[in-house]
Specification:
The chain has eight helices and six strands, in the order ααβαβααββαβαβα. The chain has 227 residues and is of the alpha/beta class. The strands form two sheets. Strands 3-2-5-6 form a four-stranded parallel β-sheet. Strands 1-4 form a two-stranded antiparallel ribbon. Helix 7 (165-170) links the parallel strand 5 (159-163) and strand 6 (180-184). The two termini are 23 Å apart.
């Protein structure tokens, strides 16, 4: 269930013309038997785990994975039983060098991060199967811009981790006196070697949270998911 503060935001945005055009277009595509990911019930999954005021870390991605059964509404995360995608493989590689004792799991489900206050947010929340960026410019960017604006204004202070050019654009209006902004290359194989590896964003986030007297994130993940 969507947390109350996020539900209030969603209710407000749903009344706006851009949002109605967006949802109408997605519904039209679904009815034409185009495969759209994630499933409708999972589009707002990121907002089910942590409410606005309780977000400690925002990890901002681009759009959902576009393979069958991959996306489930948490940026960079995949569902149980799905092969770990290359971007997440690189995130795990960075974690092994950044977080002491991190062991690479056999799965790609990041729900345990979300439950600790990590908002795993994409700038675009839906995608057509096998067609990356296919729902860019439909209106999701306006919605997620509002999400970030609300966090910037009403959250007591969190870490924004912005990977890649799409995410960097979202960070331009964040109050850096109140929040920590960490920006770097996207973890995809195309760009990870341009500065993503060695960026230490996970440990930097925890140092900052500790300074704010907030409980740091336990970035360790269960090695295998229970079946």
């Amino acid at each position: 269930m969507i947390k109350p503060q996020w539900q209030q935001l969603l209710n407000s945005e749903a009344k706006k013309e851009y949002y109605q055009r967006l949802t109408s277009e997605i519904a039209k595509q679904r009815s034409s038997e185009l495969a759209i990911y994630p499933a409708e019930k999972d589009i707002f999954n990121a907002f089910n785990h942590v409410d606005l005021a309780d977000v400690k870390v925002v990890i901002l991605g681009q759009d959902p994975y576009h393979g069958k059964d991959q996306a489930h509404g948490l940026a960079f995360s995949v569902q149980h039983g799905v092969k770990v995608p290359p971007s997440l493989v690189n995130i795990y590689k960075e974690l092994t060098t950044d977080i002491s004792g991190f062991k690479t799991p056999t799965h790609g489900c990041l729900t345990t991060w979300a439950e600790q206050g990590v908002l795993l947010l994409n700038t675009v929340l839906t995608v057509q199967q096998a067609n990356a960026h296919s729902h860019a410019k439909l209106g999701w960017e306006t919605f997620t811009e509002q999400v970030i604006s609300e966090l910037n204004e009403h959250n007591p202070g969190c870490v924004f981790i912005l990977w890649g050019a799409h995410a960097h654009k979202k960070g331009k209006n964040i109050n850096q006196d109140k929040h920590l902004v960490l920006a770097g290359p996207h973890p995809s194989p195309l760009s990870a070697y341009r500065g993503f590896f060695g960026s230490q964003h996970f440990s930097q986030a925890n140092v900052w949270l500790a300074k704010q007297e907030m409980k740091p994130i336990d970035w360790h993940l269960p090695r295998a998911l229970a079946t």
